From TrEMBL:
Protein name listed in UniProt: MBL fold metallo-hydrolase
Keywords associated with the record: Hydrolase, Signal
A Pfam entry, by short name: Anti-Pycsar_Apyc1
Organism, scientific name: Undibacterium nitidum
Domain Metallo-beta-lactamase stretches: 57-259
Keyword Signal attributed: yes
Length: 318
């Protein structure tokens, strides 16, 4: 059932998860308010798995000619998708950077809820192992609901619509002649592999860092990108937040080894010569005492270009 695809490092299924699937509808969608060109919507901008009052869990969607390319699926992504004014039926592709719960918790839910909202075409998903197993187990867990809706509502088989592709190395993971998606391993121990993604469309480019500390691979991937969305960590605020934690030293060691401080973010953006740097996946993500200016001033000594502080549902064009 599984074999290597033409793109290096992609473990893919040439048939959907249930055998004898019908060929998926290949017609492009054009049902969003902004159907032309390429734009980025930041669905969730907090870092970490704990729900925050002021920011949703990590996720972003790149809309390209009316088709949705979702990167990461933190908790509540489907609701954020709808709040952004998008139709769930526009979902075409999902890219998971790595398997931490703040990035994949609603991977299956997004597809299931889109299907309940009349999704009727193929959805290709990409990410590290065990993406295929996760997909199968999610369908098994929700088999009763899915079966009931197929019988009572006349819906097509959900399993026949999902095509998971497992990534294990850098390179091009998707290319339809108009849009190319490339990935590169980044540094997020102990999670390995963890990927960043680059989206190129008609001369414009958007890069999503995923979770990482300083990464030369990311610098290479993001060369001269129009937009780089990069995670960021406020070390001083973290020190203050963790002062009373029993496991403070252990947690800080993990965060500093696997996330990016101001200098590291600025170095990547400067060395990659990006046009716009969008700070997102804020750590700590729920601290309202940190102003936008605080984040900007932290990175400014290391990057002279445009810095944008991400907000949930912010819409940006490259």
């Amino acid at each position: 059932m599984f074999a290597l695809s033409a793109a290096a490092g992609i473990q893919t299924s040439f048939t959907p998860l249930i055998a004898h699937a019908a060929q998926a509808n290949s017609t492009r969608l054009s049902n969003n308010s902004n159907t032309n060109g390429m734009h980025l919507i930041l669905l969730g901008t907090a870092g970490g798995p704990t729900p925050k009052k002021n920011r949703a869990a990590p996720s972003q969607v790149i809309m390209i000619d009316g088709e949705a390319f979702v990167i990461d699926c933190g908790n509540g992504v489907a609701q954020q998708f709808v709040k952004a004014g998008l139709k769930l039926s526009s979902l075409r592709h999902i890219f998971i950077t790595h398997h931490h719960s703040d990035h994949n918790a609603d991977y299956g839910n997004l597809i299931l809820l889109a299907w309940a909202a009349d999704l009727n075409h193929r959805v290709d998903t990409y990410g590290p192992k065990p993406l295929v197993r996760m997909t199968k187990l999610f369908l098994q867990m929700n088999a009763y609901d899915i079966h009931t809706r197929i019988q009572d509502e006349g819906r097509a088989s959900l399993a026949n619509m999902i095509y998971p592709h497992q990534i294990d190395t850098d390179g091009v993971v998707y290319n339809n002649g108009r849009t190319k998606v490339s990935c590169a391993r980044v540094v997020h121990p102990p999670v390995n592999p963890s990927f960043a993604y680059r989206f190129d469309h008609q001369g414009k480019s958007i890069v999503i860092s995923g979770d990482t500390t300083y990464s030369k691979n990311l610098v290479k991937l993001a060369q001269e990108a129009d937009i780089l969305v990069h995670e960021v960590m406020h070390v001083q605020a973290l020190d203050k937040l963790l002062a009373s934690e029993v496991q403070a030293t252990r947690l800080k060691d993990h965060l500093f080894a696997s996330h990016s401080n101001f200098e590291q973010v600025g170095r990547v953006a400067t060395e990659a010569k990006v046009k716009k740097l969008v700070l997102s996946h804020f750590v700590p993500g729920g601290d309202t005492s940190i102003s936008d200016q605080d984040w900007i001033e932290g990175v400014r000594p290391y990057f002279a270009g445009e810095i944008i502080i991400a907000r949930d549902l912010m819409d940006l064009q490259p």
